[in-house]
Protein 1
Amino acid sequence: MTAVIVEFEIPSDRIAMSDTLTQFDEIEFDVQEIVAHDDVVSPFVWVSGVGVDRLESAFDADPSVGSYRRLTEKSDGSVLYEMEWSRDADVVLRLIEEGGAVLHATGGTDCWFFRLLYPTHESLSRSYEECRREGLAVDVIRVYRAKGGDEGTSLLTENQQKTVIEAFDLGYYDIPRRTTLGELAESRGTSHQSLSEQLRRAHRNLIETHVIEGGRSDGHDFEE
């Protein structure tokens, strides 16, 4: 049996923290670890893009946040929290109850992006079907086979490739830049936040494939 990796997106309004996310234009969540017990999901989350006072006021008013504890802060202003999501965490619970392990998760104003490892393709299918039966929207982007060795690859999705090529053609990577992220987002017909996240994922894939020795920096090699 071969373990599989799945990457997918979930609309922000279908998961915990949606009230907080809608209050800020530039807020970003980067989940380091997720622990689930009973009906409570306990993530460790780096938050950036907003001041601590405003952020914690939003946490206090967000019904999906059962509790939170500030752990540490980086020089760039990002803050690590230990949290409990007491509501709207059904999607996460369904995704991990079949043995899924969260490798990476980020949240923005439009959507959450997840990368999970499942022990078998069948366990992934059962988890996905359970989400569908309960009406939980999960937009699968890519599925990989996990394998050992050092020959794994991480390719761009078709949409990522088109975005990176257009960014290059319009001079986004030039010095000085000939176009801004906002102008590129308008050209692609998407939001500033979505385009920023898409470019970051594409850059990560390219770095992991062509720069990081041995493939992916998270310790897993992938094969389509």
Protein 2
Amino acid sequence: MKNSLLFPILAVMAFKAVAQDTICLNETITHTIRSEYLDENREYWVSLPLNYSDSLTYPVIYVFDAEWRFDLIKNIAFDLGANKKIRNSIIIGIPHVDWENKRGQDLTFSQSRIEYDGEKVDSTWYTDSNSGKAMPFYHYLTKELIPDVNKNYAANNHETLIGHSYGGYFGGYLLSLEHPFEIIHMYDPSLWYSDGEVIQRFKKSNYNKNTRIHITYQPKPEFHRGKIEEFIQELEDTESIVLSKEFYENDTHNSLFLASFYEGILKTNQ
């Protein structure tokens, strides 16, 4: 009788031991930086890959709009990395504090006088309160946030930036500035902003940094689509850029995000 009871107990203990070896909670770790460039405290969120070890090094994926996108991306990337579909990666979420105002300030470098459909707007649409302060945020990103991540985690200086809409515009604008990213994803980027200033700056930049770019877009409105296609042509004509692109004819500005990330990360982070 004792032996018959002992076997299932040992079996349960063995199962638990095996499970403990493979389970990873994929927790979110929060850090706070006192930014000199933004003159305020800013959080960033961290997700580590399966079996993370300080004795190894990892690429880092930086994600704008972390309030909505971080959980989605960290879970997909964690699963793909654990199953060896992409490189195991550290995921860094960058929240923007205040969606209505700070997000626009963080991610736009000017105050547009045109809208996404090509309609002209006056100075009451884009003001200091909601736009045009991306240069301090750029300095925060490159001089404070990334160095802090590299100090705290086993990063290997292979960095990817994920940006949608304004975040994609920011990623495109970076191509006319010094930046550390070897991979930039731009999902339906707002290249209409300031009547295509990203495109004009890129044309003048003589860009020569080896960079992989994944850009996605959808058909509406026509003015918005046209700016993206104009930018794609410039990227395709640039020798140092390896470009992948996807046109989602049946998606909207927001619905293409999931497919954009899943297909893009498989193409660029293997």
Protein 3
Amino acid sequence: MTISKTRIKLVDVARQLFAKMGVENTTMNDIAIASKKGRRTLYTYFKNKEEIYSAVVESELDMLSDTMKEVAERNISPDQKLMELIYTRLDAVKEVVYRNGTLRANFFRDIWRVEKVRKRFDAKEVALFRSVLTEGKEKGVFQIDDVDITANIIHYCVKGVEVPYIRGRLGHNLDPATRKRYVTKIVYNALCRKEISK
């Protein structure tokens, strides 16, 4: 399904305005003027500001999904792939939140509104974790009983550390290498990762 270039432009203009002025301070008229498309065109695609805000968050999450999919398709061992997925996910969300200026405040204040939009993204993320865990189990890298439950647990664990990670409160007193070593050890021990003989 191709998405109209006009819709893409409207979403991009709205994202820029939301980042600059804040969601609450941006009107549908502001978006129509900045996009040079007019109110009638804007209302053809979006009923209200809530809908366009959801479309902005969805477009950011789609880009994040694509980035994670690229990691999952890399030709590296499943254990490395899993750690890269986790860090790619956390770093990409952090980058999205910071890139969007005042959206940062909205992200933390209106997390429930973001949650409504991210259901589809969450399902894709769980599927990616599932595929990497299945690969790791089949190759004898991970010893796990239930891939589905494990994929869901990893997803919720990563989601749970999202806000402290974005705010720089997760292991802020550690250097990046030490922090990564701790996280890797926790993840690998939880999955009963086997040592792979070279």
Protein 4
Amino acid sequence: MVRRRALADRRVSYDVVGATAPADANWGAYPRGYRRFERSVLVGRGSDSWERASSLLIAWGVKTRSGFAVEPAPAAPVSTGSRVWLVARIGVVRVREPVVVVAVVDEPGRRGFAYGTLEGHPVAGEEAFVLHRASDGTVWLTLRSLTRAATGPRCALLPVALLAQRFYRWRYLRALRRS
């Protein structure tokens, strides 16, 4: 019988915790050896759009509206230090990804969070999801990520993980738009 290690027993699987800098409007230098991705999309205009998108974002809405489950189901907004499983279903296969929230930003014009991978995740690195309001009232979602191969036997999964990552990024960038 395979014993699954608890989330609390898993270490962060990368060495640049906080590197996606969700509190920073401009993302500068990033560490060597990682694939960097940053993209912003318009999600709406005005205070109603800001409130709706903010509420969804801090409740893991980008992930859940993109097809992931969050386990255990969070009872409160995203908070630094929270450890969860992100579970993707691909047909009958369930991929469980252990992560820890490494940063939260909650300012009047900027709200979001970053999570980092824990041991056992198919890749190593960090993703950040940040909403920001422009002076013209537009509301933008920015996705930032740093990715490299996981260590151990999972490193062989990097090509598959990168394909899945592209698919899910496309979904993330649409998750907070009004349907």
